[in-house]
Amino acid sequence: MPKEPERSLESHAGPDDRLPEASRRRVFLIVAVTVLFAETGVLQFTMVSPAVLRIAPSFPGVGADISWVNTVFALTGAVAAPLLGKASDLWGKKRMMTVSGVLFVIGSLVTALTASWPAFLAGRVLQGLSLGIGAVAYGLFRDILPRRYVPTAIGMLTTGSGAGVIAAPLLSGYLLDHYSWRSLFWVMTLYGIATLVLLVLLVPESNHRFRQHLDLLGAFVLAAGLALLLVYLSNGHNWGWSALGSLAYLAGGLVLLGLFVPVERRAPSPLIDLHLLGDRRVLGTLAVTFWGSVAVSVWAYAVPLMTQTPTAAQLTAGARAQAVASGLPSATAALLHVSFSGSLAFAGGLSLIGCAVHQMVWQGGTALFAGPAAGWLAGRRSMRFPLLLGFAAFASAAVLMLALLTHGIWFFALTGAVFGLGFGAYYAITPTLMMEAAPPRLQGISAGMFSLAANIGQSIATATVTAVIWADPLVMKVTLGPKSLGQVNLTAQYSLMTLRTAQILMWIVLGATVVACTCTLVLRHARAAATGGAASEEQRAPEQAGVVAA
């Protein structure tokens, strides 16, 4: 059993220092502002991920590496989240949320202005540093809100995510129809500034403090190890999975991740609390979070690509139009035969705003109601019940997608609505599970570990989608009679997929959901109702007695 690192606790308030006398209006104003501010993370994914096909042409030669638009963002968030959680215990939750908001604004400006691929990724790194805001917001709610409001407030964070899933794609679709993809990042810049001002003016700071060190060495080792593994997953299809260079990345990643454990054992205040990780409740919650995040992220990245994949008829018309533009007579171009290496029977052929209307709005709409409902059920029945319902929705959506994949674009709305039910429940219940499992003195650390598990799941899911798409590339062949006029790798240029690839991705969603559901079933503390953190008070270690009130 790893030795628990020594800690010194210091607080400017007792464990029940919150807003018991606050009016309901003030409580919900605080929650509303915090939810709006936490939406910066949702905006970065829901606005940018579906727009990848529009961003790619601005960076010629990037090819499959365009997936790093999302991968580097999630990887940065994975490492930054636990650091942010620990820093919030050290210097204050509101203060660290404010710092993250400033970095988000700077990152949005960089991505909006640059024409350089490395600089663009640097901007995404700065944006990714804000991914821990949601997790810190959970701890802030626990510290300052009356307990009876905590489960509902966490559910409202999920409601905000649902609203973001509805509004963001519609907004980004409109912007991309009338302006360039850079307008997405200008809007995020303005949104970040506006919500940052509201946070500073209206949300109180938590007075709970927990003195510790930031484990920068552990963060570096973890980030480097994960980055090398993700490079292997993202590029192994192109370099060769067994090529010496590819295996070097794999081996380097595994070695660094292996070193991460002894580094954490020796750290005075580790990035991941190995003692806390030994708690079955915490470890089980992290497992549920990781596998649930894999299911959500594969779906969220793959389905917009599927809806925006042009139909065979659209691609054929485009090839003929390009031939005419190149000087081929119209009558001759009409005789061109266009074939594909895989089926496109699933393709939606929609614009981004069409994707929003036919899929994302339905998903966000059901999530909008499922989040608060799941939080309400968790507080009155058990946390496990609504979470299992959510995973059942994930599985049902994947099965429906597999069954209806070639039956027209209407199925995108149906499966989106079903998946949204699970989306709302998952994001409402998993942070509550962590809150109930970890003692208050480690709330910031546990929140960081929670975000770490979720963002690692997202990073691995994004790299996996890229690898699966490239394993079966979509190639368009153009012929005129017996003569071949050439072929185009549509996967290399636009990340387009085949029907077989789409089916494999849905099987991955289903498999990850089954594993997450199994982990949920064995979580004993999930069988109880949510208490807003009161149940975890009994876990306080003896040194908590040293906490004094000012």
From TrEMBL:
Q: Where is the Major facilitator superfamily (MFS) profile domain?
A: 25-528
Top-level taxon of the source organism: Bacteria
- Indicate the transmembrane segments per the record: 27-46, 66-84, 96-115, 121-141, 153-171, 183-202, 214-233, 239-261, 282-302, 385-403, 409-429, 450-471, 504-523
Coiled-coil stretches are: none
Q: Where in the cell is it found?
A: Cell membrane
Q: Show the Pfam families listed in the entry.
A: MFS_1 (PF07690)
Alphabetical keyword list: Antibiotic resistance, Membrane, Transmembrane, Transmembrane helix, Transport
Q: How does it sit in the membrane?
A: Multi-pass membrane protein
Q: What is this protein called?
A: MFS transporter
- State the species of origin: Streptacidiphilus cavernicola
